[in-house]
């Protein structure tokens, strides 16, 4: 029964398909999405944009101040499973990337136990470290750094 129904449907469909293609000439073929602006010439390879060089490390103004981030971090992914900062600042990559290594203090948990990996409470860098920009201050800053750090 199924075979005969299939054959019957196929017999009805074949004439429809053949009739729909009879009127196609070369002028009726689908055109390029570019229309008459289509080109066969190869485009030039785009040049890579060079990122601006990082700034020198920013001077700290008080004892135990976390270092400021001297480069842009826009678009950096820091999630529970991935931390973009560690691609340069981990102990294994810091020398190749010419970056500051993560401090040893980041490998201790809240009880002072040394860990093999960065402690969870230190994993999200931007909790303490912040990027800086050259901008005019919104309010006057009268802060004076500790004399021993100068």
Automatic annotation (TrEMBL):
Keyword entries, A-Z: Electron transport, Heme, Iron, Metal-binding, Periplasm, Signal, Transport
PTM statement from Swiss-Prot or TrEMBL: Binds 2 heme C groups per subunit.
Compartment(s): Periplasm
Domain of life: Bacteria
GO molecular function, one term: metal ion binding
GO cellular component: periplasmic space
Polar residues compositional bias, start-end: 33-46
SUPFAM superfamilies noted in UniProt: Multiheme cytochromes (SSF48695)
Region span, Disordered: 32-55
Biological process annotations from GO: anaerobic respiration
Binding site for heme c 1: 71, 85, 88-89
Binding-site list for heme c 2: 106, 125, 128-129
Function description: Electron transfer subunit of the periplasmic nitrate reductase complex NapAB. Receives electrons from the membrane-anchored tetraheme c-type NapC protein and transfers these to NapA subunit, thus allowing electron flow between membrane and periplasm. Essential for periplasmic nitrate reduction with nitrate as the terminal electron acceptor.
Subunit structure: Component of the periplasmic nitrate reductase NapAB complex composed of NapA and NapB.
Record family assignment: Belongs to the NapB family.
Protein name: Periplasmic nitrate reductase, electron transfer subunit
Organism: Candidatus Thiomargarita nelsonii
